[in-house]
Amino acid sequence: MSKVKSTEYLFLSTYIRARENSLLGEKRLEQMAEAADFDEAAKVLTECGFPDLTGASDAQMEEAFAARRAAFLDEFEKLCPEKQIVTACRLKYDYHNAKVLVKGEGMSAEQERLLSACGRVSPEVLLEAYEQDSWQAVPEDLAAAIRSARTTLARTSNPQLSDMELDRAYFAAWLAMAETVSTGFFAGYVRLAIDVANLRSAVRCIRGRMDEGLLRTALIPGGNVPVESVRRVYAEGVTAVFADRALEKCAELGQQAVEGAPLAAFERACDNALTVYMQSAKRVSFGPEVAVAYLAGLEAEITAARMVLQGKRGGLSPDALRERLRVSYV
Fold first, then answer.
1. Which residues, 6+ apart, have CB-to-CB distance to 105 below 8 Å?
2. CA neighbor of 45 nearest in space, from 65, 63, 60
3. Is residue 17 a part of any domain in this protein?
4. Number of structural domains found in the chain
5. How far apart are CA 213 and CA 219, in angstroms?
6. Which pLDDT value is given to residue 15?
7. Whether 207 and 274 share a structural domain
8. Interval 236-256: pLDDT, tens
C-alpha cells in the first residue's frame, strides 16, 4: 500500500459529499419507473446532470453514458491523491476492449463502435497495436493477456475460453492495483467482486449441467472463498461452500436457481451485495474509501439509468422495472 494519509483526501471527500445528492438515487429511480414513457423517464436524468435524452436512439444514449463516465474519470484523475484508484477503474474498459478485439478480428466499423474510450489505452492505439502485433504503447498486463487470449481462440475456436482468460487477467490486474492503495477497503471490494464472479459461474455451470472442467477454467483466484473450495460446489452444493460468508444470502438464492427458480433474484442479490459493501464508506468522513465508493456509485448509476430507459423503450411496467432495479448507492 502507498503511504498517502487520509487527510490528503479532505478536499476530494468534501467535494464528493456535496455531489452525492445529484446521483440517481432511489427517489429519482422511482420517478423514472413511474414515468409514462421513455422521454418522460429521460427527463428525470437531467436533474442529475445528464444531457437531455428525449428522443435519443440506443446509440445516442450509450454515447451520452460513455461521455459522462469519461468526464468523471478525467476529473477524478486530476483531483485524486492516489491516481491508481482511477487507473484501476479504467482497467474494466481496457479488458472490455480486449474482448471486442479478440472476438472481432477483421473488425467492421460496427464492431469498432463497441470499443470504449475510458480505458488506460485509447481505442485507436489499442487497435493499431492489435493489428500490427506491436505492443510498446500498451501496458504489459493488457498486452500479455490479449496475446494469450488470441492464441487460445486460434487454438480452440471457442470465444468463451478466451473471454475467461481475459477475465482472470483483468481481476488479477485489478486486485494488484487495489492493493497499492492506502486502504484495504478497495482490495476488500475487489475480493468480494471475485467471489461474486465465481459464485455466478458456479450457479450457471451447475444450472446449465455443464462439465465441471468448464467451471475450473472459469474460476478466478484471489477472492475470500478459495478457488479450491468453490470447485467443490458440484459435490457439496452452493450454500455449503458459501456458508457464513458475505454472500451467504446470494448463495441461498443461487441454490434455488440451480433447482429451477428464475435467475433474476439471484443476480440482483449479487449486485446488491457489492453496493452494500460500498455503502459502508458513508461512515468514513474523509479518505480513499470515499473516492472508491463514489466511483462505484457512478458506475451503478449509469447501469440503473440504462436499465430503466431500455425497459421503458421495451414497454415494461413500473412493477417489472422495480423488480429489476438494484439497491442504490445513495
1. none
2. 65
3. yes
4. 3
5. 10
6. 93
7. yes
8. 999 999 887 789 999 999 999
Domain holding 13, by residue range, is 6-82+288-330
Show Cβ contacts of residue 236 under 8 Å, excluding neighbours closer than 6 positions. none
Q: Closest Cα partner for 201 from 263, 144, 150?
A: 263
What CATH number does the domain containing 300 carry? 1.10.132.50
Residue 153 lies in a domain: yes
CA 260/CA 125 separation, integer angstroms:
45
Extract the residue ranges of the chain whose pLDDT is less than 70. Answer: 1-2, 106-110, 330
- Residue 1 in any domain: the answer is no
Distance from C-alpha of 265 to C-alpha of 302, rounded to nearest angstrom:
20
Same domain as 277, residue 189: yes
- Residue 101: predicted pLDDT: 93
Model confidence pTM above 0.85:
yes
* 42 closest CA partner among 22, 20, 64, 11: 64
DSSP category for residue 179: T
Tracing cell 489499442 back to the chain, one arrives at: 126
Residues in the chain: 330
**Burial (Cβ within 10 Å: 0-12, 13-18, ≥19) of residue 181:** buried
User: Same domain, yes or no, for 48 and 10?
Assistant: yes
Last residue of a domain, one of 129, 163, 180: 180
Q: Give every CB contact of residue 253 below 8 A, 6+ residues apart in sequence.
A: 261, 265, 266, 269
174 in the same domain as 242: no
Question: Do 198 and 168 share a structural domain?
Answer: no
